[in-house]
Every structure is written in structure tokens, then in C-alpha cells.
Amino acid sequence: MSGLENWSWDYDGWIVLAGMLCAVAASLPGNFLLLRRMSLLGDAISHAILPGLAVAFFVSESRSSLPMFLGAVIVGILTALFTEWIRNFGDVDEGASMGVVFTTLFAIGLVMIVQAADHVDLDPGCVLYGAIEMTPLDTVDVAGEPIPRVVIVLGSVTIVNLLFVVLFFKELKLSAFDPGLSTSVGFSARLMHYLLMVIVAVTAVASFETAGNILVVAMFVVPPATAFLLTERLGMMISCATVIAMLSAACGHLSAVLVPHLFGYQSTSTSGMTALCAGMFFFAASLVSPRNGVIVRIVRRQKLAQRILSEDLIALLYRMDERSRDCAVSSQKLSSVLLSRPWLGAWLMNRNVRKGQVIRTESGYRLTDAGRDLGSVLVRSHRLWEQYLVSEGGVAVDRIHGQAEKLEHFTSRDLRDRLDEVTAAPSTDPHGSRIPSEHMD
Amino acid sequence: MTGTDASPVGDGTIQAADPIVRYREADQSAGDGRGVVVNVTLPLSVSDLTVAWHRKPVIWDVDLQVQPGQLVGVVGPNGAGKSTLLKAIMDLVPKASGRVEIFGQSYRQSRHRVGYVPQRESVDWDFPISVLDVVTMGLYGKIGWCMPVLSKHREIARRALEQVGISELANRQISQLSGGQQQRTFLARALVQDADLYLMDEPFAAVDAATEKAIVEILREMRKAGKTALVIHHDLPTVPEYFDSVVLLNMRVVASGPTKEVFTRENLERTYGGRLTLLDEATEAMRRRERTL
Questions:
Q1: Exposed site from A186, A296, A438, B288, fewest CB < 10 Å?
Q2: What is the domain range of residue A334?
Q3: B145 touches A at CB < 8 Å
Q4: Residue A336's domain is classified under what CATH number?
């Protein structure tokens, strides 16, 4: 039993579409929340709108959409205002003031809803988890076709958000990047902030009945954060976040139907699974991110280690060459000097041969002219650093080798010249070894 | 400059606070023999400006007149309110009192003539945009609400990048720039703003020698083109070389005027030494009082 035999496009298709619309609608403004470093304001607002909804119930005594929308939007803006107010006058940071505002408002909302529960059909649990699985049951006829009401609502919100991002792309970008300049040229960063808050509040209230708080909050934050790791341009980031949001919704519903069956359970919450899928995408992106991903960092570190080791080999040959002119180094001797990872040393030595810095003769390895130039540069850097550490740094002679060994790989021509100048162009290092002169090119 | 910006002195009563009159006075007292310039308003005139944060004054009673076509340095110790002064001029922070006039008008009316170079650290350099994007931002004000950025705008930005010598970096993401390159990017953005008055917050902070030289060159070209720049600066020894006049600021204006006359050891000691202790004490007492109430 796979769980898929109950899949029906007429039913599950609508759920996936609703999930996608909700995810895209939230991730669009979410990009700018992330870049303004206020992702949690999405969380705060989607919790804080609860009392707005409750008041709308009491006043209008119905579940009609318009009063609910108005109530939520007003409270959403109030959240942004209160947060700023508490931060300025309470002298606490943004996170704390957000926390105070949204927990308080959420609590008020919860109290009101529980009070009203007797005569109003609104379930606090439903607010948290949503009822996206019920999407296809509540339909409206559009041109003779039954379309789920939720899809119409979420579709409109997605279009509004898309228009908002496209029309105000420039203004959103500038006010997020440089609020000072933005305000000074006439695009008030504060106005953009509140416009964004209205959009966030509208999105939250439109989505939470269907998708629940968890999904909305996840979609405000996770797809943009994932896209941020993968892209270098704002336009690209927004498109990428949109795709990730849609993928999360599709994978989310599919795995909600599929995965529990593998373990012999009934299908689970689509909202929960969608948020979980988004989290997985983020995790994967943090591994493969081209800028700072885990894998990229490992590769970079390995490359650096290889470069250092290969340079060490050249420097070693140079030093041996220096001691007894024109002596080749056999591979046995090489592996006896290289204490760790002799196989890597042999491999890198072969690479040096291919690069034309080393030649292999019957008696062993020998530096070519190019190799000797590189070796002299490294050894010169090394010995200049030793001289510098002793004469300028006051480091004891027996402790300088290790530091110079590291520094020699990162010393440019310019830096060497300056070292030479500071240490008054010495001819020998503190150990008495000759410092090779800078060769002219 | 001449012939533009006739100040609308509609009611005919010219008071001492009028920028035209002030400019004449300043000009005569400078005694450089250029005579009286008519019909030119001051690029910047600040009077009685006070800005407070949590009731603690950050700048206090600042009066300032900036002459056209000059490079003006603003120096003072940390916390002297230098950045706040620039922000207050552009209405970015609320004023407790005082008045700012730019070419004889309010900031709101003349903001298209003002270019701003914020502190480099004030923005997030991991932001997902290219160098060219950042420079193009200088044109957003002219492009206007909801209108798209066109290729002709990018062309202007590209030329500015050439001018500051980093045209090859146009398509790099800004996180890959060095400190000097970041500053050049900001400078290029200021250039495309094509303003008459520039307000710059530490453009020389932590840049390499080559960039410092390039910035000075560009500032001098701006001056040649009749533009005015108010520049926050930290490196005191270079002040006489770079700036025509200087403002010594420590919460209040300690001294301001031509660098030759004002940039003296005595004035510097007054600016950097003992920080207006009486005023500090009074504010401290005020705060303590408030807490106990």
C-alpha cells in the first residue's frame, strides 16, 4: 500500500495548488523581510493578527472576509508600530520588542477566541495548523466550474503581492539596502516599511485559515533564506525563492500522503510537511551554496592544503639543492622527510612534474629553472619573516620557524619588499642561512 | 551658479536670517576681495539646529553657513554628532529645533540637488546586488516612483564607474569588493546623482592610499564644476590639504571658517579636549531627575 492509490488530481491537485499559491504569496514579501533583517516580523504579524480577527468576529458576527481582512490589516500595522515604539522608548532591541508585542497580541486574541468559541465557529487549533486538506470541499462556481474558494483568495493575494514586488521593485530594493539614501531621495524607507507590513498582514490573514500559522511563517522565511544562499542578484533571488516555495508545497503534500504510509500510518498534515520540506531545501542549500556552503568550504580548504604542501615540496627540494649543489632527491628520501600522507606528497610531486617545476631523473627528483625560481621566492619569504619576527617582533629564535612556515605561502612581492626594507635588507636569517635575493623578471 | 536660484524674497522684508544677506556678510568678512555676489543663495545654511536622542542632546544649537564651490571638512571626536548633523540636514532624524535651508529652500524642495554618501558600514555588503546596481541607485530619485530602470540609466552608471576607475567590477556582487572599492562604488553613486551639494559621511575611512588619492581628485573636479561638498573627516593632518574650510564640531560648533584661519591648535584642543563638561553635567542631572520621578 503506497498511499498513492487514493491520489486524485481533482482533489489533491487543488490542495497542491492552494499550497503553492500560499507559499509563493508569502515568499514574495519574505525576500524583503529577510534583506531588512526582520524575517521574524512575518512571524510576529501572523500571530498578532489573531485579536484583529476576533474583534472582526465580534463586530460583524460573521466569518465574511472583508471585516476579517480589515481587522487583520489594522492589527498588522499596529504590530509594526508598537514594535518600533517599544524599541525606541523601552530601549530594548528589535527582537525583544517584537516578542513582547506579538505574544501579548496573540494572547489577547486567544483569550477572545476561547470566549467566543461557544457561539462562533473558529477553532484555535485550526489557526495553528490550518485546514489545507479541506480546500477542495468549499467551492465557488466560476464560469460554471467549481473552483475552491481558497484558491481564488490565495490566487488574488499572490497576484497582488507579485504586482507589489514588480511595481515597487526599485523602491523596495533601495529602502532595504540603504534606508538613508532611500529617504533622502524621496522614497521614504518608513513608508516602504509600512507598505510591506500591510502586504505581510494581508498575506498572513489570507493564508492562515487554509494553511495555518506554521506554514505561512515558514514560507515568509525559509524559501527567501534558501534563495539568498544560492544567488547573487535580487531578481534571481526572488525567482529562486518562488520556485523553492512551489517545490516545497508540491513535495510537502506528496510526502504528507506518501511518507506516513511507508511506516504504516495514515497521511499527515500537509502544512507541516510543506514547512518541513522547505527546511530540507534550506539544509541542502547550505551544503551546496556557491559562496559559503559547507561543501565549497571543504573544497577550498583542501585546495589550500594541497597548494601549501606542494609549495613545501618545492621549498624542500630547493633547500636540499642549496645544501649540496645539484643533488637529486630520491622518492624514498622524500617520503622519509614527509612525515604524514606520503601518498599525497607523491601525487603532488607528480603534479609539480606536470607543471614543469620538477623533473624526474633516474637518481630522483630535481628542480627545473621554473621550480628553482618558485623555491627561491618561498625560501626568501620564509627567511625574511624569520628575520622580521626576531628583529621586529622580539620572538625567540627557536619559535620562529613554525610561524614563518605558514606566512611564506601568503607573502606577495610587495610584502617581501616591505619586509626587506623594515629588516634593513639582511643577507642571512637568524639561523645563519643565506636569504636568496629577489630575482628580476 | 550665478543667475540661478534667485531667492524668493517675496514680502520684501529682508531680515538678518536671510541667506542672501548672510552670504554677503560672510563674503565680506572673508575679505578675499571677490566682492559681493548677488543672486546666489548659500548651498547650505543651518541655524539653531538641535537634535536630541532620548532627551539627551546630540548636537546643540548648531549654526553653519557653507559657501558655494567649496570643499568643507567636518571634524570632531567620536560622538560629536557629525553624522547626526548630516542626517538632520536631510530630515533623516527629527530636529528638536532649528532650521535648515538648502539653496534657500527646505530640504524637501531641493532634495534633487543634494547627493548623499552614507558611511560605508551603514549598509549590508552581503546584499544580493551588483556594483552597477548600487551605482544606478543614485538615479532612482530622478527615475521616480514605480518607473523601471532603463539601459540609458545603466549607461550613466557605467560612465561613473569609469570615472572612479572600477569599471571592470560593474558586474561583481558587492560582497566581493575591498574597502576601497566599496568606497569608490559609493562615490560613483554620488556622481550619478549629479547634485550641487554633497553630504559625505567619512568617505576616507579605511581606504587604501590609491583610493584616497582618487577620491581627492574627484572632489577637486566637483569643486571645479562649482559643486559644494560637506565631508566628515577623521584624519586631521590631511585637513589643510583637502579642505577649503572646516567645521570643528563637538556637540556644538567650536569653530568654523576658512581652514587657514580656523584649523589651529587652540581650536583643535577646544574641540577634542574637555568635552563641554558643564553641558554634559546638566544633561546627566536632567536624566537622573527623570528616572527618580
A1: B288
A2: 297-367
A3: yes
A4: 1.10.10
The distance of A180 to chain B (nearest Cα, Å) reads 7
**Taking Cα atoms as reference points, which of B111, B26, B21, B7 lies closest to residue B65?**
B26
| Nearest one of A199, A200, A181 to A189, comparing CA atoms | A181
**Rounded to an integer, what distance in angstroms lies between the CA atom of residue A271 and that of residue A211?**
6
Select the residue of B130, B140, B189 nearest A233 (Cβ to Cβ): B130
Contact list, A232 vs chain B (CB under 8 Å): 128, 130, 173
Smallest Cα distance from B195 to chain A, Å: 11
Residues paired with B230 in a beta bridge: B72, B199
CA–CA distances in Å: residue B210 to residues A72, A309, A433, B125, B171:
55, 35, 37, 21, 22
Q: Render pLDDT for A96-122 as a digit per residue (tens, 0 to 9).
A: 888 888 889 888 888 887 776 665 555
Assign A197 to helix, strand or coil.
Answer: helix
**Which pTM value belongs to this model?**
0.80
Q: Cell numbers 490542495 correspond to what residue?
A: A15
- pLDDT digits over B114-139, tens only? 999 999 989 999 999 999 999 999 99
Q: Which pLDDT band, with edges at 50, 70 and 90, does B9 fall under?
A: very low
Q: Say if A380 falls within a structural domain.
A: no
A256 shares a domain with A336: no
| A184:B116 CB<8 A | yes
**∠ CA(B114), CA(B119), CA(B122), 5° rounding?**
115
* Residues listed for chain B: 293
Rounded Cα distance between B212 and A189, Å, is 31
Q: What angle do CA B235, B241, B245 make, to 5 degrees?
A: 90
Helix or strand holding residue A140 (H, E): strand A139-142
What single DSSP character describes residue B67?
-
Residue A187 to residue B142: CA distance in whole angstroms: 11
- Nearest-neighbour CA in chain A from B49: distance (Å): 18
Which residue among B87, B145, B173 places its CB closest to the CB of A232?
B173
Q: Of A246, A274, A291, which residue is a domain's last?
A: A291
Same domain, A242 and A342: no
Residues 188-247 of B with CB under 8 A from A: 189, 193
The verdict on A237 touching B (C-beta cutoff 8 Å) is yes
pLDDT tens for residues A43-75? 888 888 888 878 887 787 766 667 877 887 888
B92 touches chain A (CB under 8 A): yes
Chain B residues closer than 8 Å to A195 by CB: none
Measured between beta carbons, the chain A residues lying within 8 angstroms of B173 are 232-233
pLDDT in tens, A351-370: 888 888 888 887 788 888 88
Query: How far, in whole angstroms, is CA B61 from its chain's centroid?
Result: 18
User: CATH number of the domain that A129 lies in?
Assistant: 1.10.3470.10
Task: Give per-residue pLDDT as tens, B26-48.
Answer: 444 444 444 444 445 889 999 99
Give the angle A105-A111-A114 at the CA atoms, nearest 5°.
135
Going from the C-alpha of B238 to that of each of B144, B225, B233, B235, the distances in angstroms are: 39, 23, 9, 6
Cβ contact A182:A196 at 8 Å: no
Q: Give the bridge partners for B253, in sequence order.
A: B249
- What are the tens digits of pLDDT across the range A302-361? 888 888 888 888 888 888 888 776 667 776 777 666 666 677 777 888 888 888 888 888
Question: Do A334 and A317 touch, CB atoms closer than 8 A?
Answer: no
CB distance A228–B129 less than 8 Å? no
Last residue of a domain, one of A291, A306, A327: A291
With beta carbons under 8 A apart, name residues in chain B contacting A236. 128
Q: Do A231 and B145 touch (CB under 8 A)?
A: no
Which residues of chain B make contact with A168, given a CB cutoff of 8 A? 146
As a whole number of Å, the end-to-end CA separation of chain B is 55
Q: Residue A439 CB: number of other CB atoms within 10 A? A: 10
